[in-house]
Amino acid sequence: MKTILITGSNSDIGIAVAKALSGHSVNLALQYYSNQAKAESLKEWLDKKNINNKLFQADLTQASSAESLIQNTLIEFGNIDVLINVIGPFVYKDILTVSPQEWEQDIQSNLSTCFNTCHYTLETLKKSQGHIVNFAFSGVESIKARPMSACYCAAKTGVAVLTKSLATALAPFKVRVNAICPGLVEEGNISIEERQNMAEQIPFGRPVYPDEIGKTVKWLVFDSPETMTGSFLTVSGGWEY
What we know:
Layout: E1 2-7, H1 12-21, E2 26-32, H2 36-48, E3 52-57, H3 63-77, E4 82-85, H4 100-128, E5 131-135, H5 150-170, E6 176-182, H6 192-201, H7 210-222, E7 232-235
Parallel strand pairs: 1-2, 1-4, 2-3, 4-5, 5-6, 6-7
């Protein structure tokens, strides 16, 4: 039985990932920051499926909170086999109007959260020969001008470099590190017009569904080759940011 820690577990993608993984024998540690009602709804769904799970509220921009999350997960479940860093809010704002405080917030919430959880799980993942799954975006490998989302893209590019670096550093310990790179995902209650606007940008003709991300993570965790590490798995319908 694998113990899997999911950050940002009450996001649409986080929920889809948790539900996809629940088809296997797992313990699920579910981190959330806000919107407790949505987190509780996921827990209720998992409870009905008899999936052992526990919610943890934590602000992962704070290193001490990330350390406490890992410690509490280990107390609850004894080990961690997989860390899945879903957390990472998208912010759309002109770089010329972004304040230093907003820049710092975006870097903290998208990059530092990822580093913090990775750092504090290193020892337990070495013991379990585990797996880290980070999240970036489709096209993260290409350096482009993105003036309306520079903060987010800079942070996620950092996640990509972190993923590759950890994959190389942890390979001798048989710990794998990969990243999921979604395209435009149909999240929340979007209008027909919004969905159509998204679809027109995507060669496949529609947005990615959260459950497709969940299925990809499930395959990566349970069925992908043991030597698959340092990889970026793109799920985007041919769209690239």
